[in-house]
Amino acid sequence: MTEEGAGRPERDPEAVSRFVEHFAAQLVAAGMPRMPARVFAALLVSDTGAGSSAELGETLRISPAAVSGAVRYLDQQHLVSREREPGSRRERYRVHGDQWYEALTNREAVIRRWQDALREGVASVGPDSPAGRRLGETLAFFEFVEKEIETIMERWRAHRDETFGRD
After folding, report:
1. 19 neighbors 64 (Cβ within 8 angstroms)
2. Against a cut of 0.90, is the pTM above it?
3. How far apart are CA 70 and CA 7, in angstroms?
4. Looking at the DSSP assignment, which residues form a beta bridge with residue 10?
5. Which residues are within 8 A (CB) of 43 and not within 5 positions of it... i.e. 6 or more apart?
6. Where are the alpha helices (DSSP H) in the chain?
7. pLDDT, tens digit, for every residue of 15-70?
8. pLDDT interval class at 99 (50, 70, 90)
9. How far, in Å, CA of 44 to CA of 50, rounded?
């Protein structure tokens, strides 16, 4: 992805490429599939935070199909958004400054579904059985996490505003 603009320091393309691969490897180690991790890292290092399928493919030396599959995964995880280029049918993919916030916030719905399933499990095996106690403890953990996420997100918004200013 080409980056234009005067006044920006020159980048070492090899250093940027090494960072993309290193950060992608960290994301893979945390459970993200390899291609989405590479595409996400490439978008993060782009000054615009966006790129087309062709640009991403060229930057990462991967096929358009690989970019498409990666973007589909990242979109489902709320880590990128799709945009139409004005006057074109081409799509651009964008990361936003709040992508981590959005991704974590969207996990709350998943946590709530797990809680519902765990409640059903506790009821089905009995709360006083060994399995019921284990499921109950797991349920209590997710209830705790859900409350803590809300608190953390409030603290993050205040910290972000103080550190980076309001949008």
Report:
1. no
2. no
3. 33
4. none
5. 49, 50, 51, 56, 80, 93, 94, 95
6. 13-29, 34-45, 53-60, 64-76, 99-125, 130-164
7. 999 999 999 999 999 999 999 999 999 999 999 999 999 999 999 999 989 999 99
8. confident
9. 8
